[in-house]
Amino acid sequence: MAFASRGCGVEVVCPSGHPALSTRAVRALHRYNAIAPIRSFRAALLQSRPEIVVPSDELAMRHLHRLYRIALGSRDDSAPWLREVLIRSLGDPASYALIESRDQFMAMIEREGIRAPETRTVASPEEVEAWLERFGFPAVLKADGTSGGEGVKIVHTPAEALRAYRTLQSPLAAAIVAKRAIFDRDWNYVMPWLAQRRRSISIQSFVTGFDANIAAACWQGEILASIAVEVLATARPKGPATVVRLLNNAAMSRAAETIVRELKFSGLCGFDFMLDKATGEAYLIEMNARATQTSPLSLGRGRDPIGSLYARIGGEPAPSTPVVLRNDRIALFPQAWQGDTTSEMFAAAHHDIPWEEPELVRLGMQQVRKFRNEKWVQLFSKIGLYQP
Q1: pLDDT digit string (tens) for 273-282?
Q2: Residues forming a β-bridge with 286
Q3: CA-CA distance, 70 to 93, in Å (whole number)?
Q4: CA–CA separation, 309 vs 300, rounded Å?
């Protein structure tokens, strides 16, 4: 919607029934086949011939990286164009493997002097125990390729840590895969489950404090615009933000600028931080090389990621749209409506509701009602099979 409002023709690759298809912003749909995802992406790009392609989740980003590697070794006539559009969209291909590897990424962070928790990829229970003996508790275990708090466990004892490691590393249970395929129409977990593919797990020191993040638009290693926020409320512990507050934090901005420059990154991305409760110091948790929750916001000069990216691609001046907010708090739709809508924080916030797309608003409120009222949701939530 944000790209379309600037005059872009927007085409999407997504499963049938995706909420994006309820908007008037989408000019064309390219079907996503979870069984043959790379083929889906390649066909969509060759048919659409876009100026830029924007991944909206972790899986799409990995698919595009893989498509570049395939095009690099291909003699097909379309391969040079595919490589060109992917480099323009995602930045320097030399950084793709680093972005996907938590160990390599955190090693780069350390070289650049950016403050971050101790982090390491662990491949066995023994490595988990050895890390904990050195760095102690609490600790955070995370499965690579997950986002929005999914695949994250905070542990306080050795028994918790080992149990979390085995759970996260193992392929998802058949019931969860079936639920996501049938109820969520998400078939992306079916092939890994059939292959019984184990996930890569990292362990990280826990920082007591407050979540914060930056959404940025970048071009060839330069940040064009960014929005920094502190997270005031989330849909669930360590889950996606529901209410945020605008923030100016020099350390966060410097870290993001350094990483983008080092990676020669292009496109939309986000950076997750923890602000230490005692000192206020910012610790970088991870980078998301994709569009993030606050990317579509347009908050004036220097804080309009999509508008700035569109202007750079089109060779136009950066936008300076005046913005009127009720205050510095923003309630993100529809997640914020799944929380406490009677709170003062919710009532005082600027509500990011896409009124210009009534069908999308209707779907969003359906999701809220489903989350709150349906008995099967409550049941699945209790046994860990439902995540909004």
Answers
A1: 999 999 999 9
A2: 272
A3: 12
A4: 14
Peptide bond into 317 cis (omega under 30): no
Q: Residue 30 corresponds to which tokens in the numbers above? A: 């390219």
Model confidence at 90, in pLDDT bands (50, 70, 90)?
Answer: very high
Phi-psi map region of 91: left, alpha, beta (phi>0 left; psi -120 to 50 alpha): left
Predicted structure pTM score: 0.88
- CB-count burial class (<10 Å; 0-12, 13-18, 19+) for 351: middle
Mark out the alpha helices in 205-356 (DSSP H runs): 250-263, 305-314, 344-348
Closest CA to 14 of 147, 180, 148, 185: 185
Cα 225 to Cα 20: distance, rounded to the nearest angstrom: 24
Q: Tens digit of pLDDT for each residue in 347-384? A: 999 999 999 999 999 999 988 887 766 544 555 455 45
Taking the C-alpha atoms of residue 232 and residue 277, their distance in angstroms, rounded to an integer, is 14
CB atoms under 10 Å from CB of 324, counted, come to: 6
* Sheet with 329-332, side-by-side order of all strands: 282-288, 267-276, 209-219, 222-234, 241-246, 329-332, 350-352
Q: Which residue, 14, 98, 92, is CA-closest to 56?
A: 14
pLDDT digits (tens, 9 = 90+) for 124-142: 999 999 999 999 999 999 9
Is residue 273 exposed (0-12), middle (13-18) or buried (19+ Cβ within 10 Å)?
Answer: buried
Q: What pLDDT is stored for residue 371 in this prediction?
A: 72
Q: Which residues contact 5 (CB under 8 A, 6 or more apart)?
A: 25
Strands 267-276 and 241-246: unpaired
Q: What is the CA radius of gyration of the chain?
A: 21
